[in-house]
TrEMBL record:
Gene3D superfamilies, A to Z: alpha/beta hydrolase (3.40.50.1820)
Protein's recorded name: Alpha/beta fold hydrolase
Pfam assignment, any one: Thioesterase
Organism: Streptomyces enissocaesilis
SUPFAM superfamilies per the UniProt record, alphabetical: alpha/beta-Hydrolases
Family label: Belongs to the thioesterase family.
Keywords: Hydrolase
Length: 270
């Protein structure tokens, strides 16, 4: 497949679904819920291992795999955030048509920006929209390009935010890979430009009460972007606060899917 100037594959929905998306296997012909996950800066599918343990047999989990990590580690930056969002928005409908389950978009930190950008593209293209967009520990897009993290000290950032297991800090090569990926992602965030799109999708903003990076002021701009209602919730924990809360969040999303009858293959009336 030909590569783009940015080092990731040229757009082709059927082929890029396998490049950009990693989906768990469900024993149910039509799963009750599908959670599409966008990792934080420096993260990969492992960022959502606690979610995958909590989902149960009737829920699917798809993790977006960005360039420069796991099987894509050889794909070097510069990575353009708009082009990445374009590719994911082209690949994701293929997977949604395969799974035919109501779905939630979940983005953590930097992943919140990509979850929002991809959702905006799906809505604009008339594709099946998510039941809900959930952003966690994520600065509002209007201020994201001015991200405060220091790209010169990625190891310090990992330590400050507790963004890696102790095993990573104990192994120099693992720490080097984690720091290099985080540094590249932070540079990418600074290339992000907010276009101001509003989305007709229910929006939930989750914040960690002890998060030193993203508090209520940094997240406030999210409330201006969701035209179908926005809720803000503060949960115990720091920047990486999601893991213990997955069971309750999944239960809420399942109840919402059952109550609304929302399915991505069912078009919303115009």
């Amino acid at each position: 497949m030909p590569a783009s100037p940015h080092g990731y594959p040229a757009a082709s929905p059927a082929s890029t679904a396998g490049t950009w998306l990693r989906t768990t296997v469900s024993a149910h012909p039509v799963p009750e819920l599908h959670v599409v996950c966008f990792p934080p800066a420096g993260g990969a599918s492992g960022s959502f291992s606690a979610l995958r343990r909590a989902v149960g047999p009737a829920t699917l989990c798809t993790c977006v795999l960005l360039p420069g990590r796991e099987s894509r580690i050889a794909e070097q930056e510069p990575w353009d955030p708009d082009r990445i969002a374009d590719h994911i928005a082209e690949a994701l409908p293929v997977r949604l048509r395969e799974t035919r389950a109501p779905y939630v978009m979940l983005g953590h930190s930097m992943g919140g920006l990509f979850a929002y950008e991809v959702t905006a593209r799906l809505v604009a293209a008339g594709e099946p929209r998510p039941m809900r967009l959930v952003v966690a520990g994520s600065e509002a897009p209007s201020g994201a390009a001015g991200h405060r993290l220091d790209t010169a000290d990625p190891v310090g950032v990992l330590r400050e935010l507790r963004g890696a297991d102790q095993e990573v800090f104990d192994h120099p090569e693992l720490l080097r890979i984690a720091a290099t990926t985080l540094q590249a992602d932070l540079r990418m965030i600074r290339r992000y430009r907010f276009a101001g799109a509003k989305i007709d999708v229910p929006l939930t903003v989750l914040l960690g009460r002890e998060d030193p990076l993203v508090g209520a002021p940094a997240a406030a701009g999210w409330t201006e972007l969701g035209t179908s209602g926005t809720s803000v919730r503060v949960l115990p924990g720091g920047h990486f606060f999601l893991d213990p809360h997955y069971p309750e969040l999944l239960a809420e999303w399942r109840r919402e899917a059952q109550a609304t009858g929302h399915r991505p293959d069912r078009a919303r009336p115009v």
